[in-house]
């Protein structure tokens, strides 16, 4: 153990400076804790804490080590407050949340003090001073509430006292060492730097026949190594069997004494406590920082990589885009002006044609000396057209073509290849006519060489001007299209720029806040290194310490007589269950044989004999399936061994590798002690793996080998987001695959002594689908198959549907819970399902077994625990549970040693025997007796018929045909459709209430998933945890809905069975009016197929709930300000339509499934009625037509049958 610093390293100045800093920052919670550490520093008290799983015997351990009886001890959760025990003037102190303190001096009533320790009211902590104690002065022992995942309040209370501890003893229940709750808590304690001594208590539970103790300790060490836990020491103890060789209780006591005496200075560590609170204050500052970020909308302010470069790029892009229209216009006009400037429209040839054109336009122009007017006009026209045509060709080649090409190139460069625009460019042209040419001639101008130059210059200028006008019109179109094209891109960039600018501003604000956070954290380090508190700070801290609690008058409650604990008690009956109307099967079988012999040879009685034979076979060859359920380590295998009276089933050391074990009666193929191990095929194994890692974006279309390689490459088997059980399963598959891959999908027969290696070796067990063990023992000789199912907390998704099948089809269900284990989440989910379906079964086939009852110190404690479990079962909807307290270990030892069986196990076995051999067979026995009654009535009728004369026989024969017709017609009138509406209405109502219950259940599921224990990070880490919690909530809610639909199916199947009986009874009543001699056999219960259901919300993820997740403003606001309620309602509102759709989809499937099956039931019922009506007719005819039996012989047969029936009076009706 490392040496601790001296007290002088932490001074009063440190405390005052830290206290003032925490108060200035508003962290009153850690400031109050600091006051507690300051008080501890002032008294130099060594504080040793005891924590652990609630059922581990922690309080009993403290009382034993201190040699007193102070703390409440119970197999159910008790200590609800921190209890601080120290030596001194005898008294008790109750510290309340409101700052008041009650102090009691002896004599006071210790039982009422204990009751306060059990009560989670407003008591913050309890202090007990012992005058006569082994506790040295200056030492305090702290008892904390049990660590139980089902009650986070207890866990938080425990964690809130960690800052005071110098040493922690962590007490574990032998069966729950691998509990993740334990291991997570220890990891946190180790992170705090608190020395931990682990005590694995109750090792008297260990069964060396199942597992060598050395092997057990090795596995414990492996578990701690996997979690990187390094305790100071690991002790193994038992308070009930102190003479066990492995018991180290004396070493624990010696270590405790040594810590409080010789090692006290080494372990006393104020600096660690202050350092812990410093870190917790940093966490507080971080949380407040996150809250500030959220409230100011800065939680997404991180700019990311290349932010500055992006801002520069976007800014440049916007500037460039805004400049494009001007650039294009300048280029457009440049091309226009350049082209027009360089255009040579009037070469010498064209100028000559212009001169000729001008001459022809003169009034005195004529052809020849005496030229005719016609010839003159023809020449004038020719010269005009010749000039115009040549001018237009020059315009085309020197202007239009060049502008068209240059502008097309320009538009292409700026990606303006709009077809309409391109067409406008291609068709750019100036139309010129002779009139325009004439308009440019100056009136009175003399046609000279100089004027020709002037005129051609005017034409050139006019052409260019007209091209400019056309160009400006074209530019307006180009400019409009250009801006339209640029606008979309420009708007996008401007929007991005706005966001970037906002982010930039937020980033600056974020940097300021982070700088402030960094300064605050640095200030903490400065205080630790160089505290400089003001005198006022020191005084303020001391005033706060003195006024932290105010003593007030003592209430009477502590000194009053203790109130008796109001728990139901249940006496164990001295006799077996009362047997009402029981029919011994062996006697009934003999009498069925005798009845068949009596009827043999009678004409027409063959069908009756067949009916009796079928009942005989069913009773003689009866088989039963009994399914064992319960959480891992509840003792299912041990209980099965106790039932068989031999050590048969090995216990699996790990909940991840549990398989389905069936103990079957021996048969011709499989003899006693043979085990058949069925291995999973590749598809099933792949499905199991994918179900565990489905939230990790598993690539599609992978083979099993590829999937395993991918898992190993991604290190998923070590991923922190996976539960430990899932990681262990993946690890076992990866390690064992090479050895087991060639055996997949095979059945391997092994002797029983080789079975243990398959079941307990994780690297083999992970590949096993089931184990069938054929074993000859008293229970299997009764035709009973015991099915030891995986724990309710199995990681295998397929096991949930397997469990449902066993709930539905098993003849009996045993739910095993351990004496001092509370129901964990997996237990509660399973028990809720049992509660949903319990009333669907014709018989109450559920037996609840509280195992390890021998751990009770006395009958009062046993009744107390039994009452607690009954209360819990009722809350899960299991009314009037058949609950039995047994000790598997004790019962097995008694059976092996041949000593009398203990009363508790004897009562259970008697009740189970009565259920199996009386209640379950009652229906078949009742039906068999009714068939004997039918046969007796038929014999009596035969006797009557033998005395009829011919006329009476003829009359009966005539009426027989009429009755046959009427009986068949009555069957035809049983229309299936008349009942389908009842089925539809029942189904609709059942599904309606599923959604009603979901709205209530969602509250509990949200609370279980979203709690302070699941949020340990801040910032992005908290958001990731939030999404992880949401995924768990969706998974839990989806599973809940699937379980609800399965329960509805069982209720519907029970309802349909009742309707079938209703129809059958209706027919029996109506047929009796037609022919009282006709008796229909009892109806068989229908075997209905349940639809297959997929879990709801499998395809939903965090993306669907982004708006709701944004309601998260930080851990403090989420819990302290109750913002979680807002998110809960928002999540439910968003989820509800998906739940509604899920139920609607399956509503249609269930409707079709059950209506179709109902139609088949009705059809088969009509066929059955027809068969028996025709058999009755044939029997009556045979009695009238075949060789008659002697009346005396027949009378003797009748009286024999009647005498047999008399023993079953009241059962055959």
From TrEMBL:
One Pfam family recorded for the sequence: Dynamin_N
Annotated compartments: Membrane
GO cellular component terms, semicolon-separated: membrane
Chief place where the protein resides: membrane
Keyword GTP-binding: yes
Region (Disordered): 558-581
Compositional bias of kind Basic and acidic residues: 564-581
GO MF term (any one): GTPase activity
SUPFAM superfamilies named among the record's database cross-references: P-loop containing nucleoside triphosphate hydrolases
Keyword annotations from UniProtKB, A to Z: Coiled coil, GTP-binding, Hydrolase, Membrane, Nucleotide-binding
InterPro entries (UniProt xref): Dynamin_N, Mitofusin_fam, P-loop_NTPase
Gene3D superfamilies recorded: P-loop containing nucleotide triphosphate hydrolases (3.40.50.300)
Chain coiled-coil ranges: 483-510
Domain Dynamin N-terminal, first and last residues per copy: 48-202, 626-851
Protein biosynthesis among keywords: no
Name of the protein in its database record: Dynamin N-terminal domain-containing protein
Species assigned in the record: Lentibacillus cibarius
């Amino acid at each position: 153990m490392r040496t601790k610093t001296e007290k002088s390293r932490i001074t009063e100045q440190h405390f005052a400076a830290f206290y003032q800093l925490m108060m200035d920052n508003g962290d009153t919670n850690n400031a109050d804790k600091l006051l507690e550490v300051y008080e501890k520093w002032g008294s130099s008290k060594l504080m040793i804490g005891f924590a652990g799983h609630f059922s581990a015997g922690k309080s009993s351990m403290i009382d034993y080590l201190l040699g007193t009886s102070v703390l409440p001890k119970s197999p159910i959760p008790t200590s609800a407050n921190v209890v601080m025990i120290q030596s001194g003037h005898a008294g008790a102190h109750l510290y309340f949340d409101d700052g008041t303190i009650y102090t009691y001096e002896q004599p006071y009533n210790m039982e009422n003090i204990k009751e306060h320790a059990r009560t989670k009211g407003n008591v913050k902590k309890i202090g007990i001073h012992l005058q006569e104690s082994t506790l040295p002065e200056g030492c305090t022992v702290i008892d904390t509430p049990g660590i139980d995942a089902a009650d986070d309040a207890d866990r938080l209370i425990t964690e809130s006292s960690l800052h005071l501890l110098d040493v922690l003893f962590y007490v574990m229940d032998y069966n729950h060492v691998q509990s993740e709750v334990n291991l997570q808590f220890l990891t946190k304690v180790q992170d705090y730097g608190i020395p931990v001594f682990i005590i694995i208590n109750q090792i008297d539970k260990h069964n060396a026949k199942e597992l060598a103790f050395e092997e057990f300790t090795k596995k414990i060490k492996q578990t701690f190594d996997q979690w990187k836990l390094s305790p100071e020491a690991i002790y193994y103890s038992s308070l009930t069997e102190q003479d066990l060789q492995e018991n180290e209780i004396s070493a624990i006591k010696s270590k405790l004494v040594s810590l409080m005496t010789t090692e006290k200075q080494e372990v006393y560590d104020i600096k660690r406590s202050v350092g812990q609170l410093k870190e917790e204050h940093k966490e507080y500052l971080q949380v407040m920082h996150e809250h500030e970020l959220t409230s100011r909308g800065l939680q997404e302010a991180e700019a990311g990589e290349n932010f500055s470069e992006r801002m520069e790029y976007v800014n440049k892009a916007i500037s460039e885009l805004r400049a494009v229209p001007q650039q294009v216009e300048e280029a457009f006009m440049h091309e226009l002006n350049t082209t027009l400037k360089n255009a040579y429209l009037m070469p010498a040839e064209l100028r000559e044609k212009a001169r000729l054109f001008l001459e022809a336009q003169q009034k005195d122009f004529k052809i020849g000396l005496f030229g005719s007017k016609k010839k003159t006009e023809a020449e004038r026209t020719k010269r005009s057209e010749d000039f115009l045509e040549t001018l237009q060709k020059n315009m085309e080649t020197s202007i239009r073509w060049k502008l068209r090409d240059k502008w097309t190139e320009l538009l292409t460069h700026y990606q303006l290849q709009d077809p309409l625009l391109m067409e406008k460019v291609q068709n750019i042209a100036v139309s010129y006519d002779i009139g325009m040419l004439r308009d440019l001639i100056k009136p009175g101008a003399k046609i000279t060489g100089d004027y020709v130059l002037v005129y051609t210059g005017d034409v050139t200028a006019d052409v260019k001007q007209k091209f400019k006008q056309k160009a400006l019109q074209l530019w307006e179109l180009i400019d409009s299209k250009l801006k339209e094209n640029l606008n979309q891109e420009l708007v996008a960039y401007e929007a991005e720029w706005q966001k970037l600018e906002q982010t930039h501003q937020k980033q600056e604000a974020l940097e300021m806040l982070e700088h402030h956070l960094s300064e605050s954290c640095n200030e903490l380090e400065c205080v630790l290194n160089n505290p400089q508190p003001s005198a006022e700070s020191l005084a303020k801290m001391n005033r706060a310490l003195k006024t932290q609690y105010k003593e007030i008058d003592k209430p009477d409650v502590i000194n009053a007589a203790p109130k008796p604990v109001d728990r139901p008690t249940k006496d164990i009956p001295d006799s077996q269950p009362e047997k009402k109307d029981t029919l011994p099967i062996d006697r009934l079988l003999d009498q069925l044989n005798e009845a068949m012999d009596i009827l043999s040879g009678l004409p027409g009685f063959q069908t009756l004999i067949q009916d009796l034979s079928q009942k005989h076979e069913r009773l003689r060859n009866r088989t039963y399936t009994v399914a064992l359920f319960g959480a891992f380590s509840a003792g299912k295998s041990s209980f099965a061994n106790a039932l068989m009276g031999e050590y048969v089933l090995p216990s699996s050391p790990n909940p991840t590798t549990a398989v389905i074990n069936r103990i079957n009666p021996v048969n011709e193929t499989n003899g006693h002690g043979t085990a058949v191990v069925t291995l999973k095929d590749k598809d099933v194994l792949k499905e199991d793996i994918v179900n565990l890692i489905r939230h990790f974006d598993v690539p599609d279309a992978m083979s099993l080998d590829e999937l395993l390689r991918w898992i190993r490459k991604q290190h998923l088997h070590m991923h922190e987001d996976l539960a430990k059980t899932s990681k262990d399963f993946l690890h076992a598959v990866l390690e064992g695959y090479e050895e087991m891959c060639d055996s997949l999908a095979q059945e391997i027969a092994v002797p029983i002594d080789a079975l243990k290696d398959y079941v307990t070796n994780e690297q083999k067990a992970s590949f096993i689908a089931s184990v069938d063990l054929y074993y000859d023992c008293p229970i299997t000789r009764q035709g009973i198959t015991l099915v030891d199912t995986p724990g309710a907390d199995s990681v295998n998704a397929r096991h949930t549907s397997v469990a449902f099948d066993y709930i539905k089809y098993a003849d009996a269900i045993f739910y095993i819970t351990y004496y001092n284990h509370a129901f964990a989440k997996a237990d509660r989910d399973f028990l809720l399902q049992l509660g949903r379906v319990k009333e669907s079964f014709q018989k109450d086939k559920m037996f609840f077994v509280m195992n390890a009852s021998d751990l009770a110190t006395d009958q009062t404690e046993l009744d107390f625990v039994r009452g607690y479990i009954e209360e819990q079962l009722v809350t899960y909807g299991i009314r009037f549970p058949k609950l039995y307290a047994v000790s598997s270990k004790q019962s097995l030892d008694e059976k092996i040693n041949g000593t009398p069986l203990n009363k508790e196990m004897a009562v259970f076995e008697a009740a189970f025997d009565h259920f199996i051999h009386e209640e379950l067979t009652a229906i078949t026995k009742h039906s068999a007796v009714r068939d004997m009654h039918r046969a007796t009535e038929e014999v009596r009728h035969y006797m009557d018929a033998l005395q009829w004369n011919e006329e009476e026989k003829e009359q009966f024969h005539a009426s027989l045909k009429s009755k046959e017709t009427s009986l068949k017609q009555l069957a035809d009138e049983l229309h299936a459709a008349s009942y389908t509406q009842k089925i539809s209405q029942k189904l609709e109502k059942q599904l309606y209430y599923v959604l009603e219950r979901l709205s209530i259940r969602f509250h509990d599921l949200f609370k279980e998933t979203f709690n302070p224990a699941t949020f340990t990070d801040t910032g992005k880490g908290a958001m990731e945890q939030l999404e992880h919690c949401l995924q768990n909530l969706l998974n839990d809610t989806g599973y809940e809905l699937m379980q609800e639909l399965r329960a509805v199916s069982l209720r519907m199947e029970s309802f349909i069975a009742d309707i079938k009986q209703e129809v059958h009874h209706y027919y029996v009543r109506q047929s009796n009016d037609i022919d009282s001699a006709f008796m229909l056999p009892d109806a068989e219960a229908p075997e209905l197929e349940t639809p297959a259901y997929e879990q709801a919300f499998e395809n939903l993820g965090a993306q669907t709930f982004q708006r709701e997740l944004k309601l998260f403003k930080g851990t403090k606001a989420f819990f302290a300000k109750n913002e979680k309620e807002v998110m809960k309602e928002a999540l439910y509102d968003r989820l509800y339509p998906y739940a509604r759709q899920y139920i609607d989809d399956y509503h249609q499937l269930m409707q079709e499934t059950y209506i179709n099956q109902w139609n088949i039931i009705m059809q088969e019922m009509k066929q059955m009625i027809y068969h028996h009506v025709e058999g009755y007719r044939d029997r009556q005819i045979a009695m009238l037509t075949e060789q008659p039996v002697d009346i005396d012989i027949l009378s003797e047969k009748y009286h024999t049958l009647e005498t047999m029936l008399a023993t079953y009076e009241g059962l055959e009706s």
